[in-house]
Amino acid sequence: MINVYILNGPNLNLLGKREPEIYGSNTIKDLEDLCDNHAKKSDLKITFKQTNSESNLIEFIHDAIEYADAIIINAAAFTHTSIAILDALNCFQGYVVEVHISDISKREDFRKFSFVSIRADLVIMGQGLDGYIQAIDKIVEETSEN
Ligand code: DQA
């Protein structure tokens, strides 16, 4: 059984209502259901968390250090600002996938830099919610190779 933590940062609880032209019309519950259903196809246990607080996100990463084999993280705006999240991820030994629903490389300049990318083993952006599914597939692939 592979334990995967899916961690979502600030304002992602508003998916579906939040700038739908950028982030689409699906809610965070839809995203959680999508990931859970997909995980059933593999021997995968998903722990799905969202927070608007940087300190909670760091605590979730600390939990993952104890309990998870891989992390899928969309740190949202903290992606571009948080050395503390990078430091926490640097303490995690497993596979890390950074996901962004939108393509941050094609948006405002302040979104182009990501602290999370410094640690991430893989970065997926601009694929909508399917980015999370691609991340799960990659983790299954990586963990079955090892
Ligand atoms: C985001 C992109 C970030 O720049 C933004 O602050 C978010 C969401 C994305 O999923 O596209 O909140 O991480």
How much helix, percentage-wise, in residues?
A: 25-40%
- List unreliable stretches of 5+ residues: none
Overall structural class, as computed from helix and strand content, comes to: alpha/beta
CATH topology: Rossmann fold
Strand content: 15-25%
Q: Can you count the helices?
A: 6
What is the CATH C level class, in words? Alpha Beta
Q: How many strand segments? A: 5
- The separation of the N and C termini measures 14 Å
Corresponding CATH architecture: 3-Layer(aba) Sandwich
**Ligands bound here?**
1,3,4-trihydroxy-5-OXO-cyclohexanecarboxylic acid
Rg (C-alpha, Å)? 14 Å
Q: What average pLDDT do the residues reach?
A: 96
Helix and strand sequence: EHHEHEHEHEH
Enumerate the strands of the largest sheet in spatial order, edge to edge or round the barrel. Answer: 2-1-3-4-5
Helix-strand layout with pairing:
Layout lengths: L1 E7 L11 H4 L4 H12 L4 E7 L3 H14 L2 E5 L8 H8 L4 E6 L15 H4 L2 E4 L4 H16 L1
Parallel strand pairs: 1-2, 1-3, 3-4, 4-5
Helix pairs in contact: 3-4
This protein binds 1,3,4-trihydroxy-5-OXO-cyclohexanecarboxylic acid.
The site of 1,3,4-trihydroxy-5-OXO-cyclohexanecarboxylic acid has 10 residues, from loops.
In short:
The protein is α/β, with parallel strands linked by helices. It has six helices and five strands; from the N terminus they run βααβαβαβαβα.
Sum up the structure in keywords.
146 residues; alpha/beta; Rossmann fold; five-stranded parallel beta sheet; binds 1,3,4-trihydroxy-5-OXO-cyclohexanecarboxylic acid
